[in-house]
């Protein structure tokens, strides 16, 4: 099969390339900068990389004209509240439809909490609440995929990425005090666990869908490697970094401020109210082995604050 991976220089798409690079499938990617180090790495793995942009329909049509059978995509939400992810998802799905691509695989997210907890809390939020708008958008994108008319579609639902605690761009935004003050400032309820995984492992499930389009058709694959409390995350970060990471106890005023201004902290606080679902998809059923969190941290600390 000819497989076009949109987002191949990113975590989920990159994981999919890794899972398929030694398969008989021909891999294609699209990047805004095909000369970047990540795009060059794709090429050295035998991936054909097109220059393009999800906002540029012609570039999508051009990539799809290679006779693509299967498309994976994910889009990045605009944390300022813009609608680029909606616009880009529509663009991608329209291009996929026009090219008559058989299979569409979408890298979405796992809705947090229990099914009932998510529904109740989500419904209770004010229409202008940031978290309500964020999840509304994700629900809308999921529906666009289900309604895409693709012969086969699959939605992959990863939990929180453990990368959020490690990669410079996310650490700077979410946990700026981790590398310097060794404090984990989490607004998750400290007694409620959350599911985590290496985000790139979403790509393993996407690869499973390429290998079995019919079997994974209409499947919405939820997975998680480990359920951890904030304290357990801090312990794993301490172990990997060799530094004592403490769980920050927010002073009341500072917490109030964070819950009014920081999209990630606002989201985590609300997510905790959605409860915890101990049941999670069975990865083995899809032939996927998930990496334990400590192992991932140990193998990926080079070049990050964990090893500085
Ligand atoms: N972080 C979490 O905890 C978490 C958990 C569950 C789900 N998610 C979801 O994961 C998704 C992001 O996936 P990811 O983390 O795998 O992505 P990522 O690592 O942030 O990479 C983004 C990818 O999208 C491509 N891209 C972005 N804008 C583009 C554009 N305009 N045109 C063409 N390509 C574009 C980038 O390619 P180039 O730069 O090469 O162009 C890159 O390959 C989001 O929807 C997020 O909601 C995140």
From TrEMBL:
Key words of the record: NADP
Family annotation (Gene3D superfamilies): NAD(P)-binding Rossmann-like Domain (3.40.50.720)
A Pfam cross-reference name: NmrA
Domain NmrA-like: 2-283
Family (UniProt): Belongs to the NmrA-type oxidoreductase family.
Name under which the protein is recorded: NmrA-like domain-containing protein
Native source species: Arthrobotrys oligospora (strain ATCC 24927 / CBS 115.81 / DSM 1491) (Nematode-trapping fungus)
